[in-house]
Write a structure and sequence with these properties.
Elements: E1 4-9, E2 12-17, E3 27-30, E4 37-38, E5 44-56, E6 62-78, E7 81-92, E8 99-102, H1 103-108, E9 111-116, E10 119-124, E11 127-135, E12 138-141, E13 144-146, H2 156-162, E14 166-169
Parallel strand pairs: 2-6, 3-8, 4-7
Antiparallel strand pairs: 1-2, 3-12, 5-6, 6-7, 6-13, 7-14, 9-10, 10-11, 11-12
């Protein structure tokens, strides 16, 4: 069963969600993704609407539309401590079936991956920021999405001046750690 229906639009395939296929809040580490992608508007702690932006998928003929962008906060537990990872400049694509964390954007900010067998660890310097494992042929991150009760909507120029691919903190008691 396909998770997305295809609608032909002038030599392109545009992805549309099927109503009976549930979306997941799982976050996948994707070494081939060039942008962070989240389907749920509530995942964003900062958000701005954008003009629909055509985003190419697995090949040039498959597209989906991003309708917003902003910051998404992920949390994980490493050795009993809460680790917070702020992904910035993430796209809101409502038709996406799952959430993608771009390995390329993380690598550009100094976050590395160490894998062994079916498990992997993301780290910045000597600090582990997230763990994960191979599940169903995909690298699934062991993180949760921290949804704020009130998502802020900053002015476009303010968000652009602050936003970048990633920022990370080990916990609120350790300000200053970050890759941004």
């Amino acid at each position: 069963m396909q998770s997305l229906a295809r609608q032909r639009i002038s030599n392109r395939t545009h992805l549309e969600p099927r109503r009976f296929v549930p979306k997941t809040h799982i976050c996948y580490f994707d070494s081939g993704a060039t942008r962070h992608v989240f389907h749920d508007r509530a995942a964003f702690v900062e958000y701005i609407k954008i003009r629909p932006l055509s985003v190419k998928g697995f090949d040039r003929a498959v597209t989906a539309s991003a309708i917003g962008k902003g910051s998404v906060r992920l949390t994980s537990r490493i050795a009993g401590k809460k680790v917070s990872l702020l992904l910035t400049d993430a796209l809101h694509i409502p038709t996406a079936h799952s959430n993608l964390v771009s390995g390329a954007l993380l690598a550009n900010k100094g976050v590395n991956i160490l894998s062994a067998g079916n498990t992997f660890t993301l780290f910045s310097g000597a600090i582990t920021v997230a763990n994960g494992s191979m599940r169903g042929g995909m690298y699934q991150l062991d993180v949760g999405i921290t949804q704020s009760a009130q998502t802020s909507t900053p002015q476009s120029r303010d968000l652009k001046s602050r936003i970048g691919p990633i920022a990370a903190t080990v916990n609120p008691d350790q300000p200053g750690f970050g890759t941004a």
